[in-house]
Structures
1.
Amino acid sequence: MNAELWGGLITGILFGILMQRSEVIRYDRQVGAVRLVDMTIIRFMLSAILVGTVGIYQLRELGMIELSVKGTVVGTNVAGGLVFGAGWALLGYCPGTAAGALGEGRIDALVGMAGMLAGAMIFAEAYPYTQTGFLALGNYGRITLPDVLGADPWLLIVGVSLIYLLILYTLEKLKV
Amino acid sequence: MDNKSRIAWNPYLAGALAGLLAVASVAIVGKFFGASTTFARLGGALEGSVLPQHVQTLAYFQKYPFKMDWQLLFLVGIAAGSFMASIWSGTFSLTLFPDMWKHRFGTSVVKRSITAFLGGILAGFGARMAGGCPSGHGLSGLMQMSVSGYISLVCFFLGGIIIARIIYGGRYEA
């Protein structure tokens, strides 16, 4: 095993511990979020994103890292996103949390992972058809919010952070 | 196993630490969190072991050939870390039925297995079409203020809210 593989394993172990102990890998937490009754995973995700955004952009400013942004194609982002969401609500785990849920003994996560493999195989058949027509609409390449708005990243980081904090504050007020 | 260790960690603290971990991963190994690409690589490898000629005709699997990479080990690590943490805290539990599911749909193995498998198919298909999952689009995407991340994450939740409403109904009974 080289350094990259060890990095993946160690990072995964730490991430798995954090997700297991905060219970965000559980079906009840994830389906609780889409049923709008238990927003534990939103607290976890937005906290990670708040810290992560500042860290990533700080390291980038220091020239230590480069961004690795996924391409925006509005058609497939929206359609794929909605299909993913539907499957997520049925299964109760996403690809990363399914691995974690399996680790804490949830057999349904293993069944779901088998389904994800099948889903990837079916997508490989459908892939050519997703490259044309309405699914290919809105192909803007690897864009970020600062690119689109032409604004200073730090100004936008303050902006999105305030929005995240407002969402978290609202969740606390609503006690969900 | 004392009761104290069963208390869940604060999601704000655990999330913030996960954010630091994600930044450290980018700084040290140059890798952003992600999970669903591995399912494409494994799916292609699995199909290729049965239908090698057919897989060679699929552009998608040519794009994502199987490889032992950072992300595969990341997923193995998540399962291992969760296993260790659940054993330490006495929260490991071998089951097919989540509590919320059991409360609403009972303990039919067939019903839960079919729903989980179908959900997995849609989640696997959808994540590959969208170009990522809640790790790659959600966490890594939003940390970079990526436009595809915002669009996809909102749609993950929209799709989830609609289907959860259909299968569980509007009323919530704790």
Note: DSSP finds nine helices and no strands in chain B.
2.
Amino acid sequence: MPVHLTHQLMTNYLIIRVSGELDLHAALEFRHKVEDELARTSSKHLLLDFTALTFIDSSGLGAILGRYRTIRQLPGKMSIFGAGGTVRRILELAGISKLIPLCETERQAASC
Amino acid sequence: MANRMGLTLLSRSDNVGVARVALAAFAAQLSFTLSDLEEIKVAVSEAVTNAVSHAYPGAEGEVAVSATADGDLLTVEVRDAGVGIPDVAAARAPSFTTVPDRMGLGFVFMESFMDELEVSSAPGQGTTVTMRKRCRPQAG
């Protein structure tokens, strides 16, 4: 299932909702979408909605880590919410959760 | 009696998903749990991603993905005829990467999610990654 990316601009942060599979093929599209929307909206804080993300591998993790570096330089904050099952386990196994808060809900993620 | 499958793909990023979905469908004939099948998908994705990303710099080549299901054992082989890996031990180390925006976790995930991992490669000789995973007896 190809990746599908949508965005929503809130008062204090940008949400990128990622559905489908975040792998090598999707990583480039993800990078461009996030970087473009951060620049276009002048947002500093990024929330990634992984509620509908069904697969991630190390290429997807790399794309997330790259955006984390972008956010850190702004400087801004980044958090992830809605990740479940294997996706969450891989985020934790890779140590992403030590850098980027993994939250259950958008409300929690917005207050991280 | 053992069952086998094989497919040959061009080294394009959109074929990584094709490979992992095909392998997961093949693996499902064994008694793997859903969690096992997810792990197999990640491992296959990593092996094929490495071949697509590194085997044929600036060009396209073939990546052969095959699998055998025999009893409770799944064997997966991902083979390319590309440039090869000069130092396999270094490439398998965590955090080894030659590409920005990558984490060097490909081999780490293959090792974590499969029971055995063998990497056979030499400069100019291509690379073959062989992974094995057994179904575990399930409670109940």
Note: The first helix of chain B runs from residue 14 to 27.
